[in-house]
């Protein structure tokens, strides 16, 4: 795997929700060989000391054509995400990657308990799509919290997957703040954990969300090292 810096062209720009956007990029020098859950570092020409490095996880598994699909929310006053919101098809960005160790556990027989908030769902979506493509029916329980019902990412796709694939269970939740999201997930976990205690937890989102949920799982009997996390913010 190479991590060299290279330019990439924006192929398309799509709004997934009122405040979440998808960019499809095509690296210009070489294809990135990445695992679901990994991320690229964008080097953005903004801020007091450019480039501003911002990490974005791949939302879709690697494709033969080498496209990278990134999905991000518009952070109020966020330098990086607001810059990305101005990009149009044909524009260029500079990136490096792939990076990261937040990937599917191997061997893959163990059930997964995925807990995400908002765009924390992005790398998990990539993993779920990769399992689906490989016809790998590892049991997955996904608890995905959004800040509002219309900000639930991939909602209809995931609902439909839950109907067609018995090994996939989906619990969408909406909570306006990170604190409310933590409370909602903690409440849902207290009824769920006795049945899910063998599943490997994968948590993703901002630290304010991920760290209290990890603590909750530790108090429920998980070892800290058993819990895989990707946290930021
Ligand atoms: C490994 C990794 C993978 C990531 N993958 C994604 C991804 O797939 N999609 C994505 O939207 N972001 C992702 N991020 C976060 C991303 O790199 C930026 O931090 C985010 O876009 C905010 O940057 P900014 O410059 O706009 O905001 P900043 O000016 O850096 O402000 C960040 C502040 O906004 C809050 N905030 C609200 N939403 C977010 C958010 N999504 N991420 C970080 N902070 C947030 C934080 O609490 C923090 O205080 C990832 C970060 C890491 C480290």
Provide the fold topology.
Blueprint: E1 6-17, E2 20-27, E3 39-44, E4 52-57, E5 68-73, H1 79-85, E6 92-99, E7 112-117, H2 121-133, E8 140-146, H3 155-164, E9 168-174, H4 178-196, E10 200-206, H5 207-219, E11 228-232
Helix pairs in contact: 4-5
If you had to describe this structure to a student in words, what would you say it looks like?
With 233 residues, the protein is α/β, with parallel strands linked by helices. The chain has two domains: 6-99, Elongation Factor Tu (Ef-tu), domain 3 (Beta Barrel); 112-232, Nucleotide-binding domain of ferredoxin-NADP reductase (FNR) module (Rossmann fold), CATH 3.40.50.80. It contains five helices and eleven strands. It has helices at residues 79-85, 121-133, 155-164, 178-196, 207-219, and strands at residues 6-17, 20-27, 39-44, 52-57, 68-73, 92-99, 112-117, 140-146, 168-174, 200-206, 228-232. α4 runs parallel beside α5. The relative contact order is 0.15. The mean pLDDT is 95. Residues 39, 54-57, 71-73, 75, 78-81, 100, 119, 122, 206, 230, 232-233 line the site of flavin-adenine dinucleotide (FAD). Flavin-adenine dinucleotide is lined by residues 39, 54-57, 71-73, 75, 78-81, 100, 119, 122, 206, 230, 232-233.
Strand content: 25-35%
Q: DSSP helix count?
A: 5
Protein structure class? alpha/beta
- The mean pLDDT is 95
Report strand order across the widest sheet.
4-3-6-1-2-5
The distinct ligands, each listed once, are: flavin-adenine dinucleotide
Overall geometry? globular
CATH homologous superfamily annotation of the largest domain: Nucleotide-binding domain of ferredoxin-NADP reductase (FNR) module
Integer-rounded radius of gyration: 17 Å
Which CATH class of the largest domain? Alpha Beta
Sheet having the most strands: 6 strands, antiparallel
Order of helices and strands: EEEEEHEEHEHEHEHE
């Amino acid at each position: 795997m190479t991590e060299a810096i290279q330019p990439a062209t924006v192929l398309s720009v799509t709004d997934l929700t009122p405040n979440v956007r998808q960019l499809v990029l095509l690296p210009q020098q070489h294809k990135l060989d990445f695992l679901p859950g990994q991320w690229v570092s964008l080097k953005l020409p903004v801020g007091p000391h450019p480039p501003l490095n911002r990490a974005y996880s791949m939302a879709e598994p690697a494709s033969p054509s080498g496209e990278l699909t990134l999905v991000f929310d518009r952070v109020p006053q966020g330098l990086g995400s607001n810059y990305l919101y101005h990009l149009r098809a044909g524009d260029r960005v500079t990136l490096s990657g792939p990076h990261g160790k937040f990937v599917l556990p191997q061997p893959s027989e163990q059930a997964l308990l995925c807990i995400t908030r908002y765009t924390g769902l992005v790398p998990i979506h990539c993993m779920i799509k990769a399992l689906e493509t490989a016809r790998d029916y590892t049991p997955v329980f996904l608890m995905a919290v959004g800040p509002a019902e219309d900000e639930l990412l991939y909602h209809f796709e995931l609902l439909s997957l839950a109907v067609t694939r018995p090994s996939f269970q989906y619990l969408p939740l909406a909570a306006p703040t990170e604190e409310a999201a933590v409370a909602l997930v903690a409440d849902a976990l207290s009824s769920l954990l006795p049945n899910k205690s063998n599943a490997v937890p994968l948590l993703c989102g901002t630290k304010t969300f991920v760290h209290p949920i990890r603590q909750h799982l530790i108090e429920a009997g998980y070892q800290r090292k058993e819990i895989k996390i990707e946290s930021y913010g």
